[in-house]
């Protein structure tokens, strides 16, 4: 039997950070992962450059049934702490937009940094290690694995959510929670593209790859960034963001002209350029391809006429359609492409200070397996670092 003070299951962002913190405290630590490589999601994140944190990370960037739960950990390990670590390792990075920090080179820089820190803290990292069984015993836990039997005092579950099963995601963390009688919230794919009806897809045929700056709203939340037409429906940052607030059956509202009162703007253009056509003036903000197609779908009766011949009522209809386009997605692309999983372990089951399960001494849950989900923009990694660090101080 191999013995450690701490065993962490899952060598992703949260697990590695927890291992480093515990190792630095002098605890003997092993991190076990079934995948053939550590930090696969880090490697694929941010288009291969890892959006590792955000200058503006704060609790309001996170969704949870308990909005207060994340506050303590986020305040004890902030974006500035992670930035300091990145700088200590001399990793070049830049702000892309909206406070989002990316590596200049490759996401691998972040994984290498975490593995260097693990090595310095004496943390053992095992890959290709399948977990067969977990049992609670008087003095800790016994874990049966494909690499033998292990004993530990503290067991940390850092196996993440269900997104991208091909990258090693499993429901292991939820199964352990069930095994110990802990409450779970239903899980949903989030930060995920929407799918559309066959009719809409036919209307948008050929627009795949076209994007537009838009304000997208649903259930009282709005995000302004690009939307992107895809072969299956709609994606782009503002769509991914709003997907976390969308429920099946909801319509989303899209404002394709978020900076102006479009009705007033069109009336002004009517005065200034009476001979212009609606598709031409819309193409000054949208791409020509998108403006032409939307006019074909929505304004076929008006597009042939110059602006001078369009009544105020018609200008109002046009403005209304473009500024509060109501769209009902048929669904999402699901865990296959979702960046994160909403829901999961009820945060009331664990201490917000230590991340230890209130009912099971020595059992800890960190990272995405918990019911804490960040917005797009480096917030989910910040949650992984912060929760990993917090638990690492107590395991
Ligand atoms: P994570 O998923 O990182 O790690 C879990 C680990 O547990 C994995 O190594 C897995 O192999 C292992 N595991 C799972 N089941 C197991 C089992 N049964 N036995 C043993 N091991 C098991 N966030 C962000 O802030 N900025 C970004 O740029 C991106 N980009 C991004 C792109 C894509 C494509 C995805 C899918 C996700 C992102 N994210 C992101 C989200 C971010 O990757 C995610 O929130 C964190 O990785 C979660 O960290 P965890 O450590 O909780 O889980």
UniProtKB/TrEMBL annotation:
Residues 188-340 form the RsdA/BaiN/AoA(So)-like insert domain. PANTHER family: OS12G0638800 PROTEIN. Keywords: FAD, Flavoprotein. InterPro entries: BaiN-like, BaiN-like_dom_sf, FAD/NAD-bd_sf, RsdA/BaiN/AoA(So)-like_dom, RsdA/BaiN/AoA(So)_Rossmann. Residues 5-393 form the RsdA/BaiN/AoA(So)-like Rossmann fold-like domain. This is HI0933 family protein. Coiled coil: none annotated. SUPFAM superfamilies: FAD/NAD(P)-binding domain, HI0933 insert domain-like. It comes from Kangiella koreensis (strain DSM 16069 / JCM 12317 / KCTC 12182 / SW-125). The keyword Flavoprotein applies. Its cofactor is FAD.
